[in-house]
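Please go through the sequence and fold tokens given here and tell me how the chain folds. Record follows.
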Amino acid sequence: MTAREILLAGTCAGMAFLASTGTGGREAKPVNPATAHVTNDALLLHGATGWVNSPPLTDSAVRGKVVLVDFWTYTCINWRRTLPYVRAWAEKYKDHGLVVIGVHTPEFSFEKNIDNVRRETAALGISYPVAVDSDYAVWRTFHNQYWPALYLIDTQGRIRYHQFGEGGYEESERIIQQLLAEAGNVDLPRELLSLDPQGAEAAADPRNLKTPETYVGYEQARRFASLGGAVPDSPLRYAAPSTLRLNGWALEGEWTIGAESASLIRAGGRVLYRFHARDLNLIMGAPKNADPVRFRVRIDGAPPGVAHGLDVDEQGNGTASEPRMYQLIRQPASILDRTFDIEFLDAGVEVFDFTFG
């Protein structure tokens, strides 16, 4: 599998993850026949289970406006890397007629909790309205299949452009400008954004990305290497093999593997992964109302040092509390096949998904 295939096939939901080919040129025109004629009445996001940063949007709030709809879920690394652009477009064009609406459609069950969505919306610096789509009603209205997915709707309620997956930022912004100009907005800023996202929002390194997203729960798990295999929904002591092949992973210690995640029964459990990528992220967290879980990360048996991620120190120490994505490894150079090892010093952690960049 090539780096591009991993980047495009490594979905936040195990669905087909496509790079948009755009509209065939700079001119915006209706695309995606299933939804090309969505009207503003349908666009009002009926079926949203709640709203963040805004009361429920009414007809008058979007009628006659250019609207950008961004489907996301807060643990998705692919969406996270697009966020700097959506956030910047919302700010840049807010006084020129653009309405940006995020649609948070969850992947994992804990992402249905509106308190979690509110917390992460604030932590990620999102100030535009967010429709909470925990029942997938808005997702179905758009016939959507992807995280992230961006739709641009003109003042007549027609979808004129979409972008599925990462990239296409210049094309997307040019279409934003075109639709705003068509709507009669003048004095538009014509220069395109030039961003240099940092931290977890930094673009992936496709040249060194040879490891795909990996789910831990048995519904979507692949390449599980613990001796004896997985036993669903039952507590069991797992042991890792002496060596792991590239992209293989294993549990050690007492775990229960569920449909979405593996839950640690006793302190001292470990997860090991043989990977090849600049970044290693892990979606995990302590159960609701439980104490934070301490952990220690090693890479090739040693503390990560300068290769530590945002959520650990140079010695590899960190704490998992609310369920979210934790960046554990960011290698500055010498991207090789390496063995990642995380040991949990307390019981109770739930581990969901590895993502890479």
User: Anything to note?
Assistant: Residues 212-356 form a domain with the Jelly Rolls fold (CATH 2.60.120.260). DSSP finds eight helices and 17 strands in the chain. Residues 1-10, 13-35, 37-42 have pLDDT under 50 and may be disordered.
